[in-house]
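Researcher: I'd like a structural prediction for the single chain below. Treat it as a standalone chain; there are no partners to consider.
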Amino acid sequence: MGNDESRQKRSAADTFPRNHGLVEACFYRHRPLLLRGTTVITVVSGLPRSGTSMMMRMLEAGGVPVLTDEKREADEDNLRGYYEDERVKQLRDDPSWMIEAEGKTVKVISYLLRYLPEGHSYKVIFMERKIPEVLASQRKMMMRRGEPIDEVPDDVMAGIFERHLAEIDAWLAEQPDIETIHVSYNEALDDPETSAEQVAAFLGGGLDVEKIMQVVDSKLYRQRR
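Model: Treating it as a single chain, here is the predicted structure.
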């Protein structure tokens, strides 16, 4: 069987993580134990292209220190930066560096939330975005980078996303050391004041809501559906 035909026969669940530069969807049940104090770690999560970078900027503007290695520079797909830390990709094998995230916020893709080490208290801000927009944004990014576009129909991919989101929501609800708030990317663009106030209240207050609001820029909303 040729490479092209073999690639087309891969399951959609396998195609999604590999073609979008993500780890495979995981069903890891036993989180690593990392004993430490009770300082809260704020985690911004969600699907790729769901507004996680915008939320990181919002928190930074509001006064929350961010943990990022600044290795991934801003580009056409993310004009104001990605706010990532490469060590997140190795979270399953080495979570020891999460100690550095105490009192700060760090971006962790939804597929890696299960690897957050125990021994901390977490507040997860989970970004949500209309799935057709997520798919369109991912496809545009891959085209711009010259990466191969997978053959999986959008309705199949949407189903994969929806199942994953349902599973991770159920998992988060079961974790005694994790509090979660869901923030709509679409609603944040339409009503930044309400979203800023909700996030500030979730984190215990003390943030500069006005500065958080100023980060939201509807002109960057380029895949409206």
